Amino acid sequence: MKTAPPRIQPSPATGWFAGILLGAVAAGVAAVVYFFNPATHRFYPVCQFHQLTGLNCPGCGMTRALYALVHGNFAVAIRDNALFVALLAALAVRGAWFGARLYRRQPAGEFFPVKFLWPLLAVALGFTVLRNLPAGAFLSPGEFAFADPRGRVQSGFHEHDASFDNHDV
Ligand SMILES: [Zn+2]
Questions:
Q1: Which of 67, 108, 163, 168 could crosslink 39 through cysteines, CB 3.0-4.6 Å?
Q2: From its phi and psi, is residue 105 left (phi > 0), alpha (psi between -120 and 50) or beta?
Q3: Contact partners, residue 67, CB within 8 Å, separation at least 6
């Protein structure tokens, strides 16, 4: 296992900087979503795909899922966008692994190698098809439960609620 040719790695400092920058941006986005419920605030980007087709794209429900997540409501987050929650979890695991490698000054390779791309696209495509089928309706945002502004989960909600018409990304 020692036959691999030496590779030029980006310096750990570059990795740390990128990581810290990304973390800061993510924290900023999370903070905005934390204080402004996507179901009641209109300044969030609206999904053009959903507006045109009435179907859910892989990103639909993402902001609402983030809102539920930062309020500790995992069940609602998964219901709003399970793919987004899974990706966040994968990102956290990958980030922890990557950070540990950099910290120990071990070669970590690329954070997102190209070989990850196709499986990810396949999963996203499968998720998109599934959540738009009647059998996969539980993967669509706002079908069975929603978090009210206090973060409480209500189930079996069937009345028309105007907040559901606001299909943010
Ligand atoms: Zn969408």
A1: 163
A2: left
A3: 33, 34, 37, 38, 39, 147
pLDDT in tens, 69-120: 999 999 999 999 999 999 999 999 998 999 899 899 999 888 889 999 999 9
Q: How many CB atoms lie within 10 A of CB 70?
A: 17
Please tell me the distance between residue 109's alpha carbon and the centre of ligand 1 in angstroms: 32
Find the domain containing 38 and state its range: 12-156
Number of structural domains found in the chain: 1
CA of 3 to the centre of ligand 1 (A): 47
In a domain, 18, yes or no: yes
Is residue 20 one of the residues assigned to a domain?
yes
Question: pLDDT by residue (tens digit) across 27-39?
Answer: 999 999 999 998 8
Give distance in angstroms: CA of 33 to centre of ligand 1.
17
Alpha carbon distance 16, 105 (integer Å):
12
pLDDT(49) > 60: yes
Residue 10 banded pLDDT, cuts 50, 70, 90: low
49 CA → ligand 1 middle, Å: 6
Give the residue with greater pLDDT, 92 vs 151: 92
Distance 155 CA to ligand 1 centre (A): 23
Residue 117 lies in a domain: yes
